[in-house]
Structures are given as structure tokens and as C-alpha cells.
Amino acid sequence: MSDLLTITLAAGKGTRMKSKLPKVLHKVLGKSMVQHVLDTASNLDPSLNITVIGYKGEEVKENTEGDIKFVEQKEQLGTGHAVMQAREYLKEFDGTVLVLYGDTPLLTEETLNRLVKDHQNKEAAVTILTAKLDDPSGYGRIVRDEIGNVLGIVEDKDTTQDQAKIKEINTGICCFNSRLLLKALDSLDTDNAQGEYYLTDVAGILAKEGKVVSAMLTDNYKETIGVNSRRHLAKAEKVLQQRVCEYHMDSGVTIIDPQSTYIDTKVKIGQDTIIYPFTFIEGETEIKEDVIVGPQSRIVDSVIGNKVEIESSTIVGSEIGDRTVVGPYAYLRPGNKIGQGVKIGDFVEVKNSQIGNESKVPHLSYIGDTTIGRRTNVGAGTITANYDGENKHRTVIGDDVFIGSDSTLIAPIRIGDRSVSGAGSVITKDVKEGETVIGVPAKPKE
Ligand code: UD1
Ligand code: CA
């Protein structure tokens, strides 16, 4: 049994975001801010992971995953009021409560672990994670006495002129002794500039009672960025982007320009893969070893085999076999399984298709709902006409087929192994094995 309980506050609207979407659902590197926080929290293995939801709570609930207990804060009366909503759970718990804000997506497990350990070692009533900022505006300030003891936290809007100059700020991440927190929550009031129940007042209340109020200064303030506006969101994105790129570089991936390379947090990349600038790798993508990606490519939810080369192309929901070459300017839409040593060339669109080993679609083609065998060559400008205006139909092309340039294949249709079509053919009927067809509509060659 863990003696840790986490509470993530995610009920606020996030007015400063100017958005229809609740703030905590805004994404940083493809994952919502609150999900970042919850994933980090669950790595600490708490006995309970509580999330306080309110503004568009159902939407937040539906879009978060994990072992989470949701509690509702009907009216957003402040961070202290948000924690009050978890009272029933707090009453049944005896240990350390870690409060996290749903808008601090960059926090790392290491920092939180350090905070919890520090709090428990000192047997503190409360331990605040603090940071020193050149520009502390917007944040709550840590007020200390002459010998450095923490007296409390003063919110930005409530500071005196002198307090406003304090550079040590409250990151918002705090550990509490559960019983002392419960008691202190009863003493919170709304007597402040924002008329809210501030969670931050708990520190002052406990300090006055002579309890141990501790502060742990972080050496990496970037981790504690609280996102309140779209400007902050962009900053958070940059920090995480850098962190993810560094992780892959440290694992043996070459990233030519990390500044212009976006890799989502769940992406896996094998050793000696090289990523050229202006590349986006998103969702559940896995790229194997010795792959060359970019410049200017976007890969989403795809599996890319060893030694594949992808240039200036978009690949979504597809599987690409070893040594295949894609692009420049190819568009692979969902549902493709491309074999090994295949060439998908320039200005080729492929959708929901299987292409066998060593086949080639080198230029200017549309291949949709199609199965192509091995070693088949599809000439420039070939179109599979898969849509009759109402339904989609499949095209099946065998092994060792030669489709002449500018052929149109009217689906449903089957093209036999080793058959040939002449340039400019419009193929409306099945073609037999080894047959050569030409013309419009294509007929067997005499
Ligand atoms: C808060 C802290 C401030 C700290 C800063 C760090 C308080 C009073 N202030 O200010 O000391 O420096 O974070 O980023 O805690 N929320 C609710 N219910 C509410 C209000 C807020 O769930 O009624 C949630 C929000 O969704 C958000 C988090 O609490 O995830 C923080 O709220 P926010 O309004 O952003 O607080 P700050 O003004 O940034
Ligand atoms: Ca905030």
C-alpha cells in the first residue's frame, strides 16, 4: 500500500486561453496537458489518483485515460475549493497528499519523487515546490522571515509592492500531510483580491500553527511552467519538443535540427535513424533502424521498417516494409501495408492498399483499395478508379505485372500475373494471366 495520494486540479476554464476547449485539454506534443500530468502522477504509484473536474467536466473525463477517480467541482471557487471536493477521500486516507495542477504538463517523475521524499523525510506539514524567476509576475510569491522560514504564499494580485519583488515563486506543486490539510481546508476563506478559496493559504495557516512549512527549490524551473495562455502553451511545446529530441539523440538517433523536428511523446525510433529538418512524427508511430526521414515529412500512427527512406511525404496509418523508398511528395493514407524494397515515387497517393515486395509505383498515380503482388511495375499516371459514385471497389493486380503509363483500371477488377497493359489503356474487364491488353476500352492484343 502506497501512502501517497495525488490530486490533480483540472476544473478551471482557463479564461486566458480564449478557447472553447477546457484549458487542460489543450495539447502539448500531441498529448493533452492534463494527461501529461496524470501519466506522471501514475508513475509515482499513488494509492489513489484523484482528478477534480468542473468546467466542461464530461469532456475532460472522456478525453483522459488511466486509473483515475474523478470528483466534480460544480462552481470554480478557487484551488482550495477544488481540493475541498476530494474531502471524502481525504478523510479515509492517512499519508502524503500531492497536489498537482492540470496546466503544468512538463513536470517530471524525478522532481515529484524528490519532492515527496523531501516532504516525508522532514515530516513536514506542507512542502512547496518553488522556483526562482527573473520575472515572477503572475505567480504566487514565497514569503519568508529573516531567518528564511516560510511564512506563507501571497498571490500575485494580493502582493504588496515589496512582496511583488520576491523572485521565489510557488510552482503550484505541493505536498501535504493529509490530516493537517483536511483541518486547514476548514479555515480557508475568500478574503482576497480574487474572492476565491486559495489552496496556497494553507501554507500560511499551518505556519501560524507552528507546523513545519518547507519549500524545495527546483533547479529546473522550465519543468514547472504553468500554462495560462497560448503564449505559454507555445513555450511548453518548445521545452517538451527539445526534451523528446534529446531523449532520442541520447538513444542513438541523429536529428539534424531539433528545433524544427516534432516528435510526439509515444513515438519509438530505432538506432542510426536520421531525421532531417521540418519533420513531424506523431501518434503511435514506430520507426525502426537506419531509416532516413525528411526533410519535410509527416508520419502519423505508422510503422516504418528498417532502412526505409522517406522524403517530403505524408504517411498516415500505414505499415512500410524494410528498404522501401517513399517520395518525394507521396501521400499514404490510412490502411496501407507496403512490402519490402517497394518504391512509392513522386506525386503518388496510396490508400487502403497492399503492395507486395519489390513492386514499384514510381510516378503520378492514385492507388486506392488495391492489392498489388510482387515485382509489379505500375506505369506513370496510372489510376485505380475505385469509386463508382456510390460504392468503393477493389482492384487486384498480380505478380510481375506491367501496367503501361496512364492506364485507368475500373474497379472491381482483377489483373492476372505477368500480364501487360499498353500505355493509355482503360481497363474495364478482368485481364488473364500473361495476357496483353491495349486500347479504350482495353482488349486483348491480337
Ligand atoms: C496558481 C497558484 C499560484 C501559483 C500558480 C503556478 C493558487 C491560488 N495560486 O495560480 O500561487 O504560482 O498556480 O502556476 O493556487 N482550478 C480548479 N478549480 C478552481 C480553480 C482552479 O480546478 O476553482 C485548477 C485549474 O484548472 C488549473 C489549476 O487549478 O489547472 C491552477 O489554476 P489557475 O487559475 O491556473 O491558477 P494560477 O492563477 O495560475
Ligand atoms: Ca496556472
The residue-averaged pLDDT reads 97
CATH architecture of the largest domain: Alpha-Beta Complex
Q: What is the tally of helical segments?
A: 9
What is the count of β-strands?
Answer: 42
Bound compounds, please? uridine-diphosphate-N-acetylglucosamine, calcium ion
Explain how this protein is built.
The longest helix is centred in the middle third of the chain and has 21 residues, at 230-250. It is elongated, with a radius of gyration of 29 Å. It starts with a strand and ends with a strand. Strand 2 (27-28) and strand 3 (31-32) form a beta hairpin. The strands form eight sheets. The chain has a nine-stranded parallel β-sheet, with no helix packed on it. It contains nine helices and 42 strands. The model has no long low-confidence stretch (mean pLDDT 97). Bound molecules: uridine-diphosphate-N-acetylglucosamine and calcium ion. The site of calcium ion has 4 residues, from loops.
